[in-house]
Amino acid sequence: MLTIIIIALIAIIALFAVKSLRMQFITQPVFQFFKKVLPPLSDTEREAMEAGDVWWEGELFRGNPNWNTLHSYGKPTLTAEEKDFIDNQVMTALTMIDDFDIVHNRKDLPPELWDYFKKEGFFALIIPKKFGGKAFSAYANSTIVSKLASRSVSAAVTVMVPNSLGPGELLTHYGTEEQKERWLPALAKGDEIPCFALTGPEAGSDAGAIPDVGIVCRGEFNGEEVLGLKLTWNKRYITLAPVATVLGLAFQMRDPDGLLGEKKNLGITCALIPTDHPGVVIGRRHNPLNMAFMNGTTQGDEVFIPLDWIIGGPEFAGRGWRMLVECLSAGRGISLPALATASGHMATKTTTAYSYVRHQFGMAIGQFEGVQEALARIIANTYQLEAARRLTTTGIDLKVKPSVVTAIAKFHMTELGRAVMNDAMDIQSGKGIQLGPKNYLGHPYMSNPISITVEGANILTRSLMIFGQGATRCHPYVLAEMEAAAMENQHEALTRFDSLLMGHMGYATRNAFSALFNALTASRFGSAPVSGETKQYYKDMSRLSSALAFMTDISMLIMGGDLKRKEMLSARMGDVLSQLYLGSATLKLFEDNGRQQDDLPVVRYVMANRLHLAAKALEDVIRNFPNRPVAWLLRALIFPIGNHFTAPSDKMATELVSGMLKPSTARERITFLCPEFEGDVGGIAEVEQAFVAQYACKDIYKKLKKAQRSGELPSKVPNLVLFAKALEQGTISNDEHQTLLHADKLRLAAINVNDFEAL
Predict the structure, then answer these.
(1) What positions carry a catalytic annotation?
(2) pLDDT digit string (tens) for 121-142?
(3) Which residue of 270, 300, 586, 592 shows the fewest CB atoms closer than 10 Å?
(4) Bridge-partner residues for 221, per DSSP?
(5) Domain Acyl-CoA dehydrogenase/oxidase C-terminal: where (predicted)?
(6) Torsion angles phi and psi, residue 182, rounded to 5
């Protein structure tokens, strides 16, 4: 028997060690199988794959993250110029914003705010300095948009769009020198207002299917016959279109008469067109959930433009999709996440304050466990939002184009923003639903679905993009194997594939054993770059990373191209990658903040949730895996003794909330994007001032409570009566009485809502 085993082992070793045998009996059959199950890629998918860069998500996807790499990215900081702009121009803009008036009366920004934005360069944040722009970092851009959004979504979106996907960014990266000189200085000064038209009635998330067309032909321009394009388009949902002076347009470019060469369909192309050009139609507005930012339609019917209006010139004909994918990925990582993070900062600031000043049944509502449960989620999600904002903008500022990371940021951060607003509404209830100048929750709550649906609907971002691109781009072997399979020379292809296959098999085996070993040992023997309480989180994340890597290989092997259509399964595997990314951001923020001890309660809560959700997603994939014997194998390797990653405990929630129901540096660190300023008379200022004043009275209230328990003071009487009795009996001094009266006046102002004359 032993002899047979030894002979079998020798045969297996020889089979793998002798290249001619391996090529014949292993590589060749696997190569043919791989080509058969290879998921087909459309041209737009291939361009999207090639356009982005692999960044930190690649480490997470491959099963053995190098945590020192994460820490080496550095802490995002503002330059002196950026900080000065935020401290002065941004703060001045905030004093000019009355969001209730903007949304309900004007249906637009006031003229003086428009003028201020133009004059001070709010539309030029990403334009290079040589053209009169600010050339600010992604982190600064995000911070500016977030601070504006803490007071007005409409104002923030108005500033956000020219600094995101649009003519400014496309010209900066791809424009000819002549185009840059013509447009960028005017855009920087606000003399030109840009919009970019991509979405139409028949092409939303599937932007690559746009039906709008430009036909190469000859036509008259400036009194001369020139080679150009006859454009026909119908676009909708275009922000700033009703007021734009220059229109960026994406369309399918065709050359049926071969005026440019043999190729008839050149593909998606982008052009820049003045909106006063004959045939351009703008001006009609949409009503995006009653928000006041300009959003509308644009059309054109056989509008002739010269070829040199193509962004980048005629040589960039047909290269528009790649341009859009590269720029859109950066915008996804800055603009919409900034809005979501602003919601979190504002909701945390106001809801912690409101929970302290709003009393029911003789106590602050923040002392009720039901409220604490929701409040803990708000605080934790806000910390997570801020962490993800910083890490994502760090990647963009490192000049990488992390398309998978920005898809993660867009989907999960907008969903976290929605969750935060839902919980804030539940706690503040009537305060949140009665619209008026004192209401700070209503408009962000109403506008939240806008972020969910734009720049790629969230459902499709989750089910198609995150894992669909991540599995191919981040995998160390699959993309190279796909390229080998597409090679024309079959001998070279097979040789290349053989080398990749051996590496791939070792990679998969290593991840399988790593997942099993760490599961059996609870990751005790894993490595971590830090000591202390957060050390275990790094180890657990590495364990789940190896589990995801192994599960991905098995899924691609078993399902092949069908995995693309198994959207619920691939979305869950994308969730694992996403939770690992969000967890990474959380741990990095803790390090960047100097490992503050008062941040530990929120870090514990967030990391427990991230690990729980990642493990749950893995378990859900196993439970729904179509091949049951393989599912049993996955469970045996990934969860051999069960899934022990549990959701945050009640104790975690109460500890987290107790530290935030008081003015503190920890609270300031996750509410600083919702600033206070002199002359701020809105609801945010009211509730914050009441919170600070009420907290300052805490020791006086303890005296009153003690006297009530002893029977010296009556219970269940109005505050003013209680204060007067306490003063009369000498329980409190006159100064304390005045302090209580002032704090109670602020409390009443904070909990009250607006009312209006009957219609």
Answers:
(1) 455
(2) 999 999 999 999 999 999 999 9
(3) 592
(4) 224
(5) 318-451
(6) -75, -40
